[in-house]
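Summary for the lay section of the report: proteins are chains of building blocks that fold into shapes. Here we show the chain for AraC family transcriptional regulator and then a coded description of the shape we predicted for it.
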Amino acid sequence: MDDFYSRSGPAYSEVPDIVHFSSVDIDQARSVLNRFYYPVAVGTPEGAEGFGLGVEVIQLGPLTVGQISFAGPVSLVVAELDAYHVSMPTTGRMQARHAGHEVVAGPSTGVVFGPGNPVYTMHDANSAELAVKIERDALEQELAGLLGRPVRGPIDLPPAIDLSGGLGHSWSRLVRLMRDELEHTESLIYQPLIAEQLRSSVLSGLLLSVPHRYHDELTGPVGAGPPRAIRRVVDAIHDEPEKPFTVADLAAIAGMSVRSLQEGFRRHIGCTPMAYLQSVRLLRAHETLRRADPLRMTVAAVAHRWGFAHLGRFASAYRTRFGEAPSDTLRRCG
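The coded shape description reads as follows.
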């Protein structure tokens, strides 16, 4: 039986697109893979029976994470890849050929593809994998933001990633966290601040987990940003604390890498840029609650006005900072 279920979150600039799909029809399977991944030729070995494809996928802007399962043996051929891609088998094996490399991947080894070359993969019957697609521009811009300078792509990622331990295993757990959100109709992934941070973490985590020609620069010692540049960021935060800043946005304001910004804040301010942003937001929320009419204003409205996407976390941070619940401030001071 074929089944297709799609769900999108509330409307904002980057709405997660979530799809659950299963089919025994090759044409339908090809259509779904084309939609979320690449134009692909789907085939089965001669005499093979039991074709079936299952896809559970979440797409957040330039990042796509899917759980793909194969009932029977399947070959996939992409004429030319236009993105970065990592396949991590969770059950069974896959064989891959790409850019002159041949890799046999399983639960302890993932296969990595880069843009500009054809891809051939063969998947065992009763196998499954996590398939991560990252649009080329997004990963290269993430790297440029971390380094604080332009990069010339494509990034030369290795053909395989070790998932048995270390950074590769840690990165795979982060990807699984995003995949697990497929099971929840009410998820923090629908909040733009959380979604953006999670997406950036997946991209940055991959860059930190595998060797490439920028890796030493990315992980080596970093100097602190100068006080004047840090002041520009502080001023921007105070001017618009409700704006959905990411750490990359703040680094761009400073004109430096994310790592230099973080070190500059640690040295000159004594906390991270995002912790400072939250502190300013809490102060603005506190001031608003003190002046608000409790008959006309709600805690949720104040929280959302000052950039807090999750009401429970806002209330917890507020109580830690001011020693009382935000609702108490509203009732007492209104």
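Put simply, here is one thing we learned. The chain has two domains: 3-209, 221-334.
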